[in-house]
Automatic annotation (TrEMBL), chain A:
Keywords carried by this UniProt record: Cell membrane, Membrane, Transmembrane, Transmembrane helix
Keyword hit for S-adenosyl-L-methionine: no
Organism: Mesobacillus subterraneus
UniProt name for this protein: PLDc_N domain-containing protein
Cross-referenced Pfam families: PLDc_N
Domain of life, source organism: Bacteria
Main location (coarse class): membrane
Keyword Membrane among record annotations: yes
Membrane topology: Multi-pass membrane protein
Bilayer-crossing regions: 7-28, 40-61
Compartments in which it is found: Cell membrane
Cardiolipin synthase N-terminal domain residues: 21-63
GO CC, alphabetical: plasma membrane
Automatic annotation (TrEMBL), chain B:
Start and end residues of each ABC-2 type transporter transmembrane domain: 79-250
A GO cellular-component term linked to this record: membrane
Protein's name in the database: ABC transporter permease
Compartment(s) where it occurs, according to its Swiss-Prot or TrEMBL record: Membrane
InterPro entries: ABC2_TM
Source organism, top-level taxon: Bacteria
Membrane topology according to the record: Multi-pass membrane protein
Main location: membrane
UniProtKB/TrEMBL annotation, chain C:
Family, similarity comment: Belongs to the ABC transporter superfamily.
Source organism: Mesobacillus subterraneus
Any Pfam family matching the protein: ABC_tran
Annotated transmembrane regions: none
Family matches, as SUPFAM superfamilies: P-loop containing nucleoside triphosphate hydrolases
GO molecular function: ATP binding; ATP hydrolysis activity
Stored SMART domains: AAA
Presence of the UniProt keyword Transport in the record: yes
Keywords: ATP-binding, Nucleotide-binding, Transport
Name the UniProt record assigns to this protein: ABC transporter ATP-binding protein
Length: 66, 259, 302
């Protein structure tokens, strides 16, 4: 547990926070959108499980723009 | 001019409705801070996670602040460009494909304003995301290693932004020329990565090429001095950006809009 | 006075000649129907008038156009399948295109409210267009076409995708639009044209094969028809009318016969006289005017 103590939380906390924002925004958008490329549940899992990359993948590939 | 701002305002509204104004800056910030964090904590992570025999000493030479900052720039060179291309590949062709362009261009809207307002919207999004991302990287590098002079950051930013804007403008041009967004992504990605590859080995033949800009930024950060060819390369980048934009407008005008 | 003058309009897509030289004028303040079967070239013609397609040959001149070749300020256009920004609300979209058309912010706002009311979607004005039904999109489409008070309103098949109720409402709306501007709308249904328009342009295979006022058209093509049903073969009884001056043509099939006649009264008398004199085994005698669909077929086959 040496690692946890030595970590500079002032630097790690922003990382975690913006990561959560990204995930939340992706989920909100997923819920509001009627159609996605590929099944919705699959994107929900990808957004929740794959760190950072999941939400970005959703916005780049999964989202259907009009 | 008034009409141009109306079009630009619509681009901004669209980019906030589809959350581009959230996820693109966040992605660029994450790309910027991941490298300083991982390279700083890497020895400790290996130490605590790795199941190494007692007494093993891992020697990882501590990188300099400039090296860490350059490392995070290389993330933009790959993933950053990928994001720019994928998020803007439908910038012109999308509205044409869906058909909404018919309702817009049947109004007295100039082709010039239509294309340039879209370009400007994407440019503002990308350049401000890059600014935030590089600023975050600079700050994290500073806290974890050592603060580089802010002027170094600014120098790196403008040259890098010039390069990414050129890539963005190439995407706009392809999107005006090609019907399918996937084709736009393919053409731009292949062009950029092939040019980068060629530029990496033919540094002498291509010393004026805008594709060398990222290289020159690294040089500026390590040697504290711009290499001599930065100015022609930067000038050409601006010139190509302008030329691509003009070509995009001309192509868009010529295309049959109604099919 | 002509609002629009079209001269020798030609459009080729690659090798295919889609429009083969149209000449016509649109009078200010009239409603004109562009009639034709699917593929006759109606949409291509409208798109050229709207400036969305460049003609291969020929000219389109507008009365009072500011810049040669760009008359977009003067026209409003509704495509057959209008597509909007689905992420905008109806109100946002109308204000947006209003401002693009040169209205001030205040004018665009006022005009938007007015039009939402006129086309009957003001209840849904703050809803995203992505959630709109087909009929609502059609009405929004009409609203966007007229927001800048154009002199010429062009609508491509505005009613063909609608259910009977929606169709009725849109036709009534067109009736109102006529008061403010010249209306040109395309349709493949003659009844719709007849209901609102004074004039027609009949397009077939990229050519105008008939044009003029609705009355002229009707007089020329609309004939009366007498249907007869016999017990037994009809042919023997009706064939002698082939030389009758009042009869234009005869069709018979089995025990049924139809006589297309010029002068209904005269024809009726002579047919009934024959029936009595020759003691026809007649089951049915019916007078009907031929349907517009049949007129349509006639003109097209010409």
């Amino acid at each position: 547990m040496e690692l946890l103590e030595s970590v500079n939380w002032a630097l790690i906390a922003p990382l975690i926070i913006i990561q959560l924002i990204l995930m939340a925004v992706a989920l909100v958008d997923l819920i509001k959108n009627d159609k996605t490329n590929g099944p919705k549940w699959m994107w929900a899992i990808i957004i929740l499980v794959v760190n950072i990359v999941g939400p970005i993948l959703y916005f780049v590939i999964g989202r259907r723009n009009h | 001019m008034n009409q141009w701002f109306i079009l630009l305002k619509k681009e901004f509204l669209e980019m906030s409705r589809n959350y581009k104004w959230v996820w693109v800056p966040i992605t660029f910030i994450l790309l910027g801070i991941l490298d300083p964090l991982t390279s700083y904590y890497l020895p400790q992570i290996i130490d605590s996670v790795g199941d190494l025999p007692e007494g093993t000493v891992i020697q990882i030479p501590e990188p300099s602040a400039a090296e860490v900052f350059i490392m995070s720039l290389s993330e933009y060179q790959l993933i950053g460009i990928l994001i720019i291309v994928l998020s803007t590949m439908a910038i012109v062709s999308g509205e044409r494909k869906s058909g909404v362009v018919q309702l817009i261009l049947v109004k007295p809207v100039s082709y010039f304003s239509y294309i340039t307002s879209k370009w400007a919207g994407a440019l503002i999004l990308i350049s401000s995301s890059l600014f935030l991302g590089m600023l975050a990287s600079w700050y994290y590098t500073g806290v974890l290693y050592e603060f580089l002079p802010f002027s170094d950051f600014l120098a790196a930013y403008w040259a890098y932004a010039l390069w990414l804007i050129l890539v963005l403008t190439l995407v706009v041009l392809c999107s005006a020329a090609l019907k399918h967004p996937g084709a736009t992504a393919m053409v731009t990605l292949i062009t950029v990565f092939v040019l980068n590859l060629v530029g990496g080995s033919l540094t002498h033949a291509l010393e004026w090429s805008p594709t060398q800009l990222p290289l020159y930024v690294s040089e500026r950060l390590t040697t504290n001095q711009w290499p001599e060819h930065i100015w022609p390369a930067a000038g050409l980048a601006a010139l190509f950006t302008f030329a691509f934009l003009v070509m995009a407008i001309l192509l868009f005008k010529r295309k049959e809009l109604a099919d | 006075m002509a609002l629009v003058r079209v001269d020798n309009l030609v459009k080729n897509f690659k090798e295919m000649k889609v429009i083969k030289g149209l000449d016509f004028e649109l009078e200010a303040g009239k409603c004109v129907a562009l009639i034709g079967a699917n593929g006759a070239g109606k949409t291509t013609t409208l798109k050229m008038l709207a400036g969305l397609l460049d003609p291969t040959e020929g000219t389109i001149e507008f009365e009072g156009e500011e810049k040669v070749g760009d008359h977009r300020k003067l026209i409003g256009y509704l495509p057959q399948h209008p597509v909007f920004y689905e992420w905008m609300t109806a109100r946002e979209f109308l204000e947006y295109v209003g401002k693009l058309s040169g209205l001030s912010v205040k004018e665009a706002k006022e005009r938007t409210e007015e039009l939402l009311e006129l086309v009957g979607i003001s209840d849904a004005k703050n809803r995203k267009i992505g959630k709109f039904s087909g009929g609502m999109k059609q009405r929004l489409g009409i609203a966007q076409a007229i927001i800048h008070r154009p002199k010429l309103i062009m609508l491509d098949e505005p009613v063909s995708a609608l259910d009977p109720l929606g169709r009725r409402e849109v036709l009534e709306l067109l009736d109102k639009l006529k008061l403010e501007a010249t209306v040109l709308f395309s349709t493949h249904i003659l009844n719709d044209a007849e209901e609102v328009c004074e004039s027609i342009l009949f397009l077939h295979n990229g050519e105008i094969i008939e044009s003029g006022t609705m009355e002229q058209f009707r007089e020329k093509y609309q004939q009366s028809k007498i249907d007869l049903v016999f017990k037994g073969c009809a042919e023997n009884f009706v064939e002698k009318f082939a030389n009758n001056d009042d009869v234009i043509s005869i069709k018979h099939e089995g025990n049924k016969a139809s006589l297309y006649v010029r002068d209904l009264e005269a024809a009726k008398v002579s047919i009934l006289n024959s029936a009595v004199d020759e003691n026809w085994p007649l089951y049915k005698f019916e007078i009907s005017s031929i349907s517009l669909e049949e007129v349509f077929m006639k003109v097209v086959q010409k």
